[in-house]
Amino acid sequence: MSKYLITAVLLLSTTHLAYAHESRDDAKNIKKSAPHAEQKDWGIASDVKKVSRTIRIAMSDDMRFSPNAIEVKQGETVRFVLVNHGRLMHEMVLGTKKELDEHAALMAKFPEMEHSAPYMAHVAPGSTGEIVWRFNRVGTFAFACLIAGHYESGMVGAINVTSKD
Asked: Is the pTM of this model over 0.90?
């Protein structure tokens, strides 16, 4: 008789956990759908409705971005449309040179590491991706493909953010 009681308690506990798990997943999905804007040294994520300019960037298997140098005014919100013309996966990650160097070193150690943030986009071969970013700080920043070997092969670019005056 106690076996049946234990089984019943376990079933009820499992059912309760399943419902609790579902609500946590729902909360996670809600959080994912709402963009989280965190101020970075190189700017902040923005809304597509605030885009003032669109810049197309081509990525290729010769480990290059085209263009690889971009001029932006402080306060400008840019939509980067990333087009992967290659047969390999590529990505674009915005940041400071120091942060990209550190991230690239991690990617070299852990090439299967998955990462996602508003300042990065992974683009499958033959596909497009996008980043919407507001450059609210003056300075010279960088972008790169941090897939193992790509950064080291020169798949980098520069963004010069000038004062709005």
From this structure: no
